[in-house]
Amino acid sequence: MSVHIDSGLCIGSGQCALTAPGVFTTDDDGFGTVIPGKDGADDPMVNEAVRACPVQAISVAEG
């Protein structure tokens, strides 16, 4: 599984980091980022974070 946040779409709501803190964090400007080395495969909350994002900036690719 590969998780990606489109930085051009992200508005910094922080829903990803609140929903799946083991995979997502926020940068110094408050925008969501994927924690380095985390692919989301071991966290069942990743799909919830995708749904919680108000601008659908998170994408998940299988494989």
UniProtKB/TrEMBL annotation:
PROSITE patterns: 4FE4S_FER_2. It holds the Pfam family Fer4_15. Residues 1-29 form the 4Fe-4S ferredoxin-type domain. InterPro entries: 3Fe4S_ferredoxin, 4Fe4S_Fe-S-bd, Fe-S_cluster_ET. Keywords: 3Fe-4S, Electron transport, Iron, Iron-sulfur, Metal-binding, Transport. SUPFAM superfamilies: 4Fe-4S ferredoxins. Its cofactor is [3Fe-4S] cluster. PANTHER family: FERREDOXIN (PTHR36923:SF3). Ferredoxins are iron-sulfur proteins that transfer electrons in a wide variety of metabolic reactions. This is Ferredoxin. It comes from Streptomyces orinoci.
